[in-house]
Amino acid sequence: MGLFRPYEQGQTKTETDRSSPKEAAAPEPASSQDEHAETSGTSSNQSTRRDTSAGQGSAASKAHQPKGAPTPTRAEAEAARRERLNPSLSPKEQRRRDRRVRQEKRLEAMQAAERRPERGLIRDYVDSRWTFSEFLMPVFLIVMAVWLAILIFAPRAIAAVNLLSLAMLVAMLGWIIDSWRLWAGVKKQLNTKYPGVSRKGLLSYLNNRAMTPRRWRNPVPRVERGSHRRA
């Protein structure tokens, strides 16, 4: 029968070839797997023991190392803490520090005074007007320079010296009139807007503001000249 059905013989041979690799790759017995697991566990335990012994040895060596410095006493630690909080300074450094502290306090006091509303009113009142007091210092400087030049190069020019003295008196009179005019206007506005505010020191503040040239005034003017007329 096999002679008349050759295709069955080829199929039987193919099935035999496919089954042979499966039989060759059969799983290992359980005993070999157990031996392999025991071997790996033993090696891991040995490595763990070696690491533990090495760590204990390093800790023991660190514990036996001597200290770099003796432990400070309580009094020494307290003194070091006080030194950090309040460092001891030399007399020169202490004077410099005191001077800086005084300057900071003075600056804070000036800034607090400048924030008062009545002073802001005086600044705006003076900055919005042309004043004679603003040109008083330049006039004084020019007169003094000419006076010294006459005394050095022409000491006999008595008439010129008298003329300069008269100019100084006129400038002083103009400053007094200008200050009175400004103070009268400021008092009127103070009575209207801030009737209960103390006026102590406000007149000198007005004169200082008026006599300082506009570009050197501090705080910087926040209004333009002539703004009081437009208002």
Describe the structure.
This protein is mainly alpha-helical and about 230 residues long. Among the domains are: about 80-110; about 115-215. Helix content is about 75%, strand content about 0%. It has 9 helices and no strands. The protein has helices at about 5-25, 30-65, 75-85, 90-115, 115-125, 135-155, 160-195, 200-210, 225-230. Helix 5 (about 115-125) runs parallel beside helix 8. The radius of gyration is 52 Å and the shape is flat. The termini are far apart. Residues about 10-15, about 20-40 and about 55-65 have low confidence and may be disordered. Keywords: Membrane, Transmembrane, Transmembrane helix. It comes from Cutibacterium granulosum DSM 20700. This is Membrane protein.
Helix content: over 70%
The helix/strand order is: HHHHHHHHH
Structural class by helix and strand composition: mainly alpha
Shape: flat
The low-pLDDT segments are: 11-17, 19-38, 57-65
- Total count of strands: 0
Termini distance?
A: 132 Å
Mean pLDDT across all residues, rounded?
A: 75
Contiguous helical run count: 9
Largest sheet: none
Q: What's the gyration radius in Å?
A: 52 Å
As a percent range, the share of strand residues is: under 5%
Transmembrane segments: 135-154, 160-183
Region (Disordered): 1-103
Keywords: Membrane, Transmembrane, Transmembrane helix
Protein name: Membrane protein
Quickly describe the structure.
With 231 residues, the chain is mainly α.
